[in-house]
Amino acid sequence: MKSLILLLLLICSLAADDKACLACHKEHTQNFSTSQHALAMQEANVKTVLGDFNNATFNYNGIVSTFFKKGEKFMVTTDNEHGILQNYEIAYTFGVYPLQQYMVKFPKGKVQVLDIAWDSRSKTDGGQRWFHIHKDDNVTAGDVLHWTGPNLNWNFMCADCHSTALQKNYDAKTKTFHTTYENITLTCASCHGKGDEHLMWAKDPKAYKGEHPMGLAIQLAKNHWKMDAQGKPKLEGKINRTEVEMCAQCHARRAQLDNSYSPGEKFDNHYLLSQLDESLYFSNGAIKDEVYEYGSFKQSKMYEAGVTCSDCHDVHSLSQTSLNDTVCFKCHQASTYTSTKHHFHQENGKGASCISCHMPSRTYMGVDERNDHSFRLPRPDLSIGTDNPNACNQCHTDKSAQWANDVMVKWYGKVPVGKQNFAHALEALHTSSQDAPQSLYEVLMGTQPNIAKATAVAYLGNYPSQQTYTTTLQMLRNSQADIRLSALQALETFPPQMRVQETLKMLDDKVKTVRIEAARQLSALPKGDLDPATAAKLSKGIEEYQQTLLFNADRAESQTALGTLYANLGEPEKAKEAFEEALRIQKAYVPATINYVYFLQNNKQEDEAFGILQNGLKNGSDQAELHYALGLWYVRHQDNTKALEALKRAASLDEDNAQFQYVYAVALARDNVKEAISILEASLKKHTGDVQTLYGLVYYYQQIGDTEKAKQYKKTADALSHFVPKLEQR
Description:
By secondary structure, this protein is α+β, with helices and mostly antiparallel strands.
């Protein structure tokens, strides 16, 4: 009787989509029903809400929010988009552990996520309290991070991963969302696809005439590993990325391109993965911002070997397939890796833990501790003189990175390098150092992860030469879509006669992310110069790119890109409308202001451009980019005094921007060449390989008659401009 009652309770708690699965897949369905995936989003009621709504208050920077109940409704009094306290009804819950968030319905189909969340951990762990997910920032009304702002909008930011078969359905004309889903939370269908055909097959396998084996559109199977003679795991059969890419749909820092993804389809045809961008990852590839798992995992030897998510995680319950470090011993011999000769720490202590050393964690959203999935060797040497974290100093916080490195060398007789050996290269590329081009080639020629190579390839365009042009064309033919995409981005910096024909070829690429980048670059190309077949192909590519932007028309960045696209297509009214819509959505969005200003200037609307800049400075506060654009506006209008003032402000606000320093120095050199030289040399110390800065110093030293200094700088600049890599690795 007890088991029958439990079964009935389980059936009642399951999403409607999953109840049909229970008859044949009882264990999997039961495991899934209590997982965080199954509880990803729920309607707010007494069974689902975990937070304290008994008139609890929370003070964030002087704004006192109150959580209370009104009959059966869960309510909150908090600041609205104007900073005024207002009552809101909680419509939905988001997640369960280690925090739970709450959502409010707004007019026009918009749903917003509160930035005050419930810490659902135990009191012992510091939980059972309200907290602000941006506790270290002074987030106020009007900020993009405020709960009423665009970055906490459920329809765009969250919905695709928390509900089944979601359709965002944003109407750009009415500025209204008509977001729908087949199920409010995740279900079996979220990963396995629709089960209609599978049910037909299960009912009568012999009568089933569908195209998919067993009626399953996606075939998911566990990997089979065996140990070779050296005790190392080897995958039986070919590497299959289907499962990993399916999980990446949500477990990746990515941009969504459309609403047409179905489980089992290629990730790159529907999503654009963020590379190892400086704002998201440290230069050694360790997690910095909230990037989830896929971008990290792609850096690992495990990914390269064919390991998938289900090798370590039970995909239904979401627990590890084995407890803690024992999950590692499925493939790695415990006798070798638990030995003190390997980890040199006290047995069973934190320092002996595979996870602590090879998957160090970082906390996001205040309480959510997440492990880095790049499975890297501890490299304290890469932390010396940089902000790169390392597992050693995460425990030994009272010691320096140099101390940790010295201990490692003492233990192992050398610095253990591992697969991810691209930190110096990315650091050099980020800072435009003199050895950046050579470091770039060392990444490309080495055995570095493809995601690191793709990140480096995009920098080829910073060093345009015959050598880098040839390399860029080679990378356009790479089998990896992310590398082809980066090569296209690098190619854009070369003269039109060197890139147009090659870019046209990429309109035929099999992957959407590459095609739409090619279309973006070619959108300004006059179709009259093309044969009819090529013109038709380009029109098709531009339409695909435009539809991608329109899909995200609720975002300021998409409207800004639409403005540029319409300007390129010779549709100025549409362009103006898009730029203004971008600034309506997010009035302080600097790229929209800058691009709108350039558009107006190109259309000889100088006064209007000046007005947009003034509004931008008012709304965007003291942004260096806006002062820089204002300085250039004054230069165009020959007001050198005001130009110098604005350019100086830009240079002082962003001292690490070599372009801002250079242009300010050029403006200053009209009256004070020596001071201009001083600014350029200070900038060169931070960007030792910036060619523009070097040639600027050549010119100004020639002006003051110091030919020896000019000759020295010219030698360095010429070597970088005509760079030829050393093909042997260091």
